Amino acid sequence: MKFDVRFTAIGVSIVLACLAQPAAARTCEAPPALTSVDPPGFYQNASGYADAIKPLHAFIAEVNKAADERDLDCVMDLLAGWARGSALLTTGANYQSDFERSWAGTDFALALLRFPGASIKADHRFQQIKPWLIRIAEETRDADRINHLGNNLVYWAGLDLMSIGALTDRGDLVDAGMSRARQGIRDIGAHGELERELMRGERALHYHNFALIPLVFCAELASRRKVDLYAENNGAIRRLADLIVRAVQDERSFGALTNVPQQLFPWTFQGDLAWMEPYYARFHDPRLPSILGPRRPFTNPRLGGNVTASWGAPLPD
Does position 39 have pLDDT exceeding 70, yes or no? Predict the structure, then answer.
């Protein structure tokens, strides 16, 4: 094959010209830290919730964007800025504040766990981030407004504890998180049902799926410690996963558990199916490629950004 020298020269000139231009500096300065986030309950006041949560969700989006772009320096800058400001450590008056802190801490830890551990721990900014995330985990662990519920929010708290514990080498937090995950696993019935989530009426299917998310990710983190949560309670997580997969294929299948017509949020069978990425990578369930393919990439603001990039496996052709 012959190359046209003229086009080669032009290409080199373009590359050199681009290199000569100053790179557009990405602003990674953290916004002012939110010492507390205290929205009203999502169902009690949807518009008030949306307004109150905007600053936190905007910050999470920035962290996840940097993680998606593999920009560890930016992730560190953002999180260190909030760590210095003791963000989210003041407990709000509304119970929703505990939930939001738990989810945010989970997201921050999972975003960092996308990078090599040695790179994170060698960075001086991690010495600011580490104690702050531990405080978030401890506040979540001790939050009575979560602990008494016995539902999906306890399982999400478990993922907060496990992810932060794994990141910070705090085995006690990992153990506390695993205990909460095991509570969820014990809650799963013979047909994959969760009694507390069935009580949600028209949102029961949504909350079965929402409850499954932290259980799958807890099982994945536990597997790194050679603990098989997938096997516990006679494969309970897999029963719940099967229930959801069948409902995605045919929503009417959920009618075996409840006669109440189900209402889904737009994200229920979109971003909230992100658990399928690690699940497929582990089990290669042949039903999942047709579900995963059209929906990829999966992004989730509670799971560190692009879940497909961080947990997914190639699909068959």
Answer: yes
Total number of domains constituting the chain? 1
27 — pLDDT class (breaks 50, 70, 90): low
**Is residue 213, in this structure, part of any structural domain at all?**
yes
Q: Report pTM.
A: 0.91
The three state secondary structure string of 31-59 is CCCCCCCCCCCCCCCHHHHHHHHHHHHHH
Count Cβ atoms within 10 A of the Cβ of residue 226 and give its class: 0-12 exposed, 13-18 middle, 19 or more buried.
exposed
> Which domain range does residue 234 map to?
33-311
SS3 199: coil
Helix spans in 69-148 (H)? 72-84, 96-112, 117-121, 126-141, 144-147
CA–CA dist 233, 27 (Å, integer): 48
**Which CATH number does the domain housing residue 221 bear?**
1.50.10.100
Tens digits of per-residue pLDDT, 186-198?
A: 999 999 999 999 9
Residue 306 forms part of a structural domain? yes
Residue 316 lies in a domain: no
